[in-house]
Specification:
Layout (H helix, E strand, L loop, with lengths): L15 H35 L16 H23 L2 H4 L4 H14 L6 H19 L10 H8 L2 H23 L1 H6 L2 H9 L1 H16 L6 H27 L2 H24 L7 H23 L7 H5 L5 H18 L7 H9 L1 E2 L15 E2 L1
Antiparallel strand pairs: 1-2
Helix pairs in contact: 1-2, 1-4, 2-10, 4-5, 4-12, 5-13, 7-9, 9-11, 9-12, 10-11, 10-12, 12-13, 15-16
Length: 377
């Protein structure tokens, strides 16, 4: 299996397979904790709304006094801590895609605990997210080795990365301005708040990787360490704020999958620009990585676009008659009607007139011992 050959631990002093699996284990634990924390915070927000307090989507902060919300926040903090530790053992492009499992956890928990519908297409969407994540893990690009804060500083000051982060900052600032000036737009589209949270992921991941290097190299007194810590805290607080707004306005099964796709996209782009991971990738790995990400996008689209569709296994296996079958049925009805009119046989025109005027109930057939009745108008 090629996953054992992925060089995801270049920046780990001890290196090896054990470090890689430690990173994967921490990433899986992080996905479970983060997915569960979303449900806890959603239940707290719903409880506050039922009490008549100002909703978070309308600027209220009553959730700060709710114990359930704080338990969700602490659970998310534990998950992010595991995620932080995972970045110390594995590359960002190996850790981040495993967030697809948090989509699955969130969807299942919201189905069981919040009573939100999860139809067959939603379940298939969750499965596609997981499969795409597995493919990304197997074909993860190699991360350029960074062992000191001096090297990290040089990479952060690369012209390409500076231009990339400037563009992200301007776009994020523009979305924040839209949310302030046009709150109605934010409440009508799930993308706005979620996009702000996702764009901030570029700052979060860059800061986490830098702090991981500072911890390993015992350079906690370095000025860059404190700058990265400040950037990390600001980005996390802002993400929590806008994520609460989106969760209070939209269903969890809609918010979290969209957040996953956008956040993963931003993180992958950030890692590619910062660590130049794709420079030495084989063509098959590039194609598979792009294809795996598109599989995840399709899975999330199935969760979002068909969330309200009343699709079950019964409706999929009990389809109405095909056009050819309906034509045979119309011929039989026309022949019977012609015979009943006096034995002369129905003409071709009579048959098609009868088909045009026939109204057939489109509901699934119901088992019955009696004769099938067609309504002729």
């Amino acid at each position: 299996m090629r996953v054992n050959n992925v060089s995801c631990g270049h920046d780990v002093p001890t290196g090896g397979v054990h470090s890689q699996w430690a990173g994967l284990t921490l990433a899986l634990l992080s996905a479970i904790l983060v997915g569960g924390s979303v449900i806890l915070k959603k239940k707290a927000l719903l409880r506050l709304a039922n009490r008549g307090q100002t909703r978070a989507g309308e600027g209220g902060h009553g959730y700060l006094k709710d114990c359930l919300w704080w338990s969700g926040l602490l659970t998310m903090g534990a998950g992010e801590a595991c995620n932080f530790a995972a970045y110390m053992f594995a590359a960002a492009t190996l850790v981040t895609p495993l967030g697809a499992l948090s989509v699955l956890v969130s969807a299942l928990f919201s189905w069981f605990l919040l009573g939100e519908e999860l139809n067959v297409l939603g379940k298939l969407g969750c499965l596609l997210c997981v499969l795409g994540s597995i493919l990304l893990v197997i074909h993860a690009p190699q991360e350029q080795e960074v062992t000191s804060l001096r090297e990290m500083s040089a990479m952060l000051l690369q012209p390409g990365f500076v231009a990339f982060m400037t563009s992200v900052s301007l776009l994020c600032g523009g979305l924040v301005a839209v949310s302030w000036l046009a709150p109605g737009v934010a409440r009508s589209s799930v993308v706005l708040y979620v996009a702000i949270c996702s764009l901030l992921g570029a700052f979060t991941v860059s800061s986490v990787k830098g702090l991981a290097i500072a911890i390993r190299s015992a350079a906690l007194s370095h000025p860059l360490t404190w700058i990265l810590l400040l950037v990390l805290l600001v980005s996390i607080v802002t993400q929590v704020h806008y994520l609460n707004k989106s969760l209070d306005t939209f269903d969890t099964q809609l918010v979290y999958p969209v957040y996953y796709v956008l956040f993963t996209s931003v993180v992958l782009c950030t890692s590619v620009v910062l660590f130049r991971e794709w420079n030495n990738m084989a063509a098959v790995d590039v194609v598979t990585t792009i294809g795996a990400f598109l599989v995840m996008v399709v899975g999330v689209a199935m969760l979002q676009l068909f969330k309200e569709a009343q699709v079950t296994m019964a409706t999929l296996t009990n389809q109405p008659a095909r056009p050819a079958e309906r034509e045979e049925l119309a011929d039989a009805v026309a022949d019977n009607a012609g015979g009943a009119r006096g034995g002369g046989g129905a003409t071709k025109e009579d048959k098609y007139t009868l088909v045009d005027n026939m109204v057939v109930d489109s509901r699934p057939p119901v088992a019955s011992e009696g004769l099938t009745v067609f309504i002729i108008s």
